[in-house]
From TrEMBL:
NCBIfam families: PRK06853.1-5
Taxon lineage: Bacteria, Bacillati, Bacillota, Tissierellia, Sedimentibacter
UniProt keyword terms in alphabetical order: Oxidoreductase
Protein name per the record: Indolepyruvate oxidoreductase subunit beta
Molecular function in Gene Ontology: oxidoreductase activity, acting on the aldehyde or oxo group of donors
């Protein structure tokens, strides 16, 4: 099997790293060799966070090069444009239609960029998810990340892995049920 490359990007506090751990665990249980790397940056201050997950028969490095990602999952709209150069021309961009203003935007120094999704849609196969709205309907906006995980799983045809048992193992008991609902909602959204 050819190596597959998944790039997950967002800002601190969105659960990007938890999703990467769930994803990596599932891929390992499915028998793949998996490598994961994470970059926190200024995550605690709302800065950019990225994780890279590579899987296949044998993976030698956890790093995805420019133009090598099969799929880019953006937990925040603007992050998708920051990381777009890492996506293959025939790759898929899964974008959460959710804006989190950075410090310069909040201070009024710059405006949040307009037309991000439209610009990306002109370049690559793009799937837009409003994970905030979906998670709000489920009753907990903190599961937005798992909604996006569901969209990723469906987009990469990884539905034959027992994701529910992995969530049960990696998520606190009181949040398991809502996370499983979020996973399924994300799969249905694409």
């Amino acid at each position: 099997m050819k190596i597959k490359n998944i790039l997950l990007v967002g800002v601190g506090g969105q659960g990007t790293i938890l999703v990467s751990k769930i994803l990596s665990t599932g891929l390992l249980q499915a028998g793949y060799d998996v490598k994961m790397s994470e970059i926190h940056g200024m995550a605690q201050r709302g800065g950019s966070v990225s994780t890279q997950v590579r899987y296949g028969e044998k993976v030698h490095s956890p790093i995805i090069g420019i133009g090598d990602a099969d799929i880019l999952v953006s937990f925040e709209t603007m992050e998708s444009i920051r990381w777009l150069e890492f996506l293959k021309p025939d790759g898929i961009a899964v974008i959460n239609e959710h804006e989190i203003p950075s410090a310069p935007i909040l201070s009024g120094k710059i405006a949040y960029p307009k037309g991000v999704i439209e610009a990306i849609s002109e370049k690559v196969n793009t799937k837009v998810i409003n994970a905030a709205e979906i998670s709000e309907k489920l009753g907990n906006t903190k599961v937005m990340n798992v909604v996006l995980l569901g969209a990723l799983i469906k987009s990469m045809n990884l539905t034959d892995i027992d994701w529910e048992s992995i969530i049960k193992d990696l998520v606190k008991d009181k949040f398991v049920e809502i996370n499983i609902k979020a996973l399924n909602a994300g799969m249905e959204a694409v």
